[in-house]
Amino acid sequence: QNRLFVYAGYSLFPLLEEKFQYLSHQLLPQLQNYVGAFKRLISKQQVSLIVIDEAISYFARTLLLTARSLGVRSCEYQDGVIGSYFLQREIADKNLVWGNFFKTRCLEETNFSPDHVAVVGSPHLEKEFARQSTHKKLPDRFWVCRKLGIPVTEKIILFTPHAFHKGSRGGLIGGHLQRSEAEEMLRAVIQAVVGKENVHLIVKLHHGDHNTQFYQEELVKAKVKIPFSLVREMPILFLIHAADVLASPLSTAILEA
């Protein structure tokens, strides 16, 4: 069988063996457990509809496929700025998006039918629209600076990286970006702020990001000469309202700004 993995006289099997072992000994048994658990749950609770956020993880994809095999309808809800991974498959019965712009993008870049994509809005963004309509004010810049110990005279650069899971091989960010890209984005931000005067860098960690030490070490290693803060708990809208510049990858923070 190893001859199946020979290219130009070289065996590729040693390179693939570890991946095959992971698939056969870890991933497939795990997926089988998922399928069994999902079938029992759906049958016991008499589930008629399943709605999940973007089916990036094996867990979410397996749930949708199990539901489909049992004849249970399912919806996949937009969970952020739509990336190519959201447009490359049609696992759920319907894709739910925030607005007409995202529906148009789905229809232009996929073979989805118009009936397959439904506009349902975004509770997170609509909450902000409702606040604006009532002229309710966010905490001002002075409040944010006081909470974080930042002089109000300093310019604030807000960086909102994706969350990622560290591991021996790096891991993923947001389910579709590599850890090396997180490091590259951070280096780009650092290069942009190094040497600037009266500047404070805020790194706003995603609520699912537990890599405070990673960013702390990277910023220290880069010998950043400006003060910086690592923030997880403060609401992103408070920070955006106080910031002078937002640096962000593919993120809803851009839309909120």
Number of helices: 10
Oligomer description: single chain
Largest sheet: 4 strands, parallel
**Low-confidence runs of at least 5 consecutive residues:** 167-176
Please give the structural blueprint:
Elements: E1 6-7, E2 10-11, H1 13-45, E3 49-53, H2 58-69, E4 73-77, H3 84-87, E5 94-97, H4 100-109, E6 117-119, H5 123-133, H6 141-148, E7 155-159, E8 172-173, E9 177-178, H7 179-193, E10 199-204, H8 212-221, E11 228-231, H9 236-242, E12 245-247, H10 252-256
Helix pairs in contact: 1-2, 6-9
Question: Overview of this structure, please?
Answer:
By secondary structure, the protein is α/β, with parallel strands linked by helices. 45% of the residues lie in helices and 17% in strands. The strands form four sheets. It has a four-stranded parallel sheet with strand order 3-4-5-6, with helices on one face. The chain has a four-stranded parallel sheet with strand order 11-10-7-12, sandwiched between helices. It has a two-stranded antiparallel ribbon with strand order 1-2. α1 crosses α2 (58-69) and α6 (141-148) crosses α9 (236-242). The longest helix is centred in the N-terminal third of the chain and has 33 residues, at 13-45. It is globular and about 60 Å long. The chain starts with 5 loop residues before the first strand and ends with a helix. Residues 167-176 have low confidence and may be disordered.
